[in-house]
Amino acid sequence: MSAPATEQFLSRDIRLGHVTKDIVAPTERMPSIAWWIAFLTASGMVGIGVVVIYILLTRGQGIFGLSHPYGWAFDITNFVFWIGIGHAGTLISAILFLLRQKWRTAINRSAEAMTIFAVMTAGIFPLLHTGRQWVAYWLVPLPNDRLLWVNFRSPLLWDVFAVSTYFTISLLFWYTGLVPDFATMRDKAKNFLRKKIYGALSLGWTGSMRDWNHYEKAYLLFAGMSTALVLSVHTVVSYDFATSIIPGWHTTIFPPYFVAGAIFSGFAMVVTLLVFMRKAFSLEHYITIRHLELMNKIILLTGMLVGYAYLTEFFIAWYSENPFERYVFMNRLTGPFSWAFYIMFFCNVAVPQVFWFKKMRTSIPIMFVISILVNIGMWFERFNIIVSSLHRDFLPTNWDNFSPTIYDFGWTIGAFGLFLTLFLLFVRVFPTVSIAEIKHSLPKPADTSKEGTHA
Amino acid sequence: MRKVPAIIGVYSDPDIMMEAADGARKKGWKNLDAYVPYPLHGLDKALGLKSSWVPWVTLVMGLTGASLGFTLEYWVHVINWPLNIGGKPLNSWPAFIPIVFESGVLIGGISTFVAMWAACKLPNKAPVIHDERFTDDKFGLVIPLDGVVPADAEAYLKASGAEEVKHV
């Protein structure tokens, strides 16, 4: 990078033609050994998940460590965790778009892909957790011969609507963004089959300004709708808890606290994966250290927001004078699951403070380790909310300690495998950086006389 | 418009093409278009394009979706299957809001998607691709030849800085 201006993310030496070539290149060559190792590992993990699901469907819910009074544990922890992971993608693609943050163009495509895959992964858990999975369609308000309707007043039903809307709109938004890039790939393709496939995916896009005119408006509208969804989806997920009367769940802080936590964990996942992706596909000129640094700043900010929420919960428990509420929070600090609380607090509140230092924010190994720790911390946050609130309820005769079975671990591993498998396939066949959008945000070449030499 | 023979000027610099488009519009040439690898801000005005009608679809369908959501909830809980729960009102509208919102966004979003592709007349099985570089790094200004003398258009494009001129 020569003479970087303060707001410059991309080098002035990058020309339009370079963008096309560099971003399409990874999909044109054979996968590397490292990719195969990663892919086989990830699909092996999916295999574990499939085995668990088979056993679940044939033997029933009893294979998990669930019992009274903790009817929810790993399943809902995983559900909330994965829905949360998706939020960074939507935030980057929608809110940063509306705020005209041009740096988002380098990372929005891959982050949106993570949204789609994370929501797909998340959806498995509540569906299988229903117990009688073959009647899962009862979740949808369909006319039926039972003459029954779903309860529209129930937050669990709001969740069905929120998650399915979120998935649908994210998918349409993502695909819309991909269409001009598919057209670029079609026009660049030499191979007949490749031309046909990307041609079909591109819907016949030609880049006519008359089409772009409609496209840009629709894109803006999608950004607006997705912005509303970023804020609403995890809010609705938090209602699953907040509208119940369980101490530790019944609090009004949950919606903003869940949204902040979702963005926090989502950004951590984006950093984890992009650190590898930019290296493996030589995209360092597009996804620069400055992009990663900005994401780390968001991790620092949202980390402190969740930290503030944790402390507020304790304060309110004390302030409420409600003995049950107070007990739940004392139990989090000193009870049998206090280790989960301390892991969560350490990973989510203490660890990100390292990002106050620029040296740390811009160091790849440091940010990788921190992003992994944040992901662990956020998984335990949900575990902590769910299990530590449930396992000791109002009557001490009901108390019990949750202990997960190998099946609980099995499908958790399967979920990570599914997410990674889908992501690995995505980086092989789709443009991982938005070609059209990054061309848009490219700085003017310093020397225009060289322009066009690589047509 | 695409059936009319046209002449295309190929440019490398978006700013030069934008000026050429602006000049062509001022000459009174109609139905101008451009092929660009990414949307250029201001090009819609330079070509004399009208604002897209897609947002109206979003507005109308979004409101329709929200109303349908509320209607379904009201019909289920007040008319078809009223359940008295602790004497609470049947039309408990605050509890209906999340689904009103979600169904508005869902139907509004799907309609926007459909309307946008309809507006672009896509999907198109056999798109006419005049130059494969227009999705890469070249910018093409299209002047349809209805009422325009081809030689005039060609001379204009060359004078405005086009690197190549193509008849299509």
Provide a brief overview of the structure.
With 455 residues, chain A is mainly alpha-helical.
Protein described:
- The complex is a heterodimer of chains A (455) and B (168).
- Helices cover 68% and strands 0% of the residues of chain A.
- Chain A has 455 residues and is mainly alpha-helical.
- The longest helix of chain A is centred in the middle third of the chain and has 34 residues.
- Chain A has a domain of 294 residues.
- Chain B has five helices and four strands; from the N terminus they run E-H-E-H-H-H-E-H-E.
- The model of chain B has no long low-confidence stretch (mean pLDDT 92).
- Chains A and B meet through helix 1, helix 5, helix 7 and helix 15 of A and strand 2, helix 2, helix 3 and helix 4 of B.
Chain-wise SSE layout:
The complex is a heterodimer of chains A (455) and B (168).
Chain A: H1 16-28, H2 33-59, H3 74-98, H4 108-129, H5 155-188, H6 192-201, H7 209-242, H8 254-280, H9 289-320, H10 323-334, H11 338-350, H12 358-361, H13 364-390, H14 406-429, H15 435-440
Helix pairs in contact in A: 2-14, 3-4, 3-7, 3-8, 3-13, 4-5, 4-14, 5-6, 5-7, 7-8, 8-9, 8-13, 9-10, 10-11, 11-13
Chain B: E1 6-11, H1 14-26, E2 33-35, H2 43-47, H3 54-80, H4 93-119, E3 139-144, H5 150-159, E4 164-167
Helix pairs in contact in B: 3-4
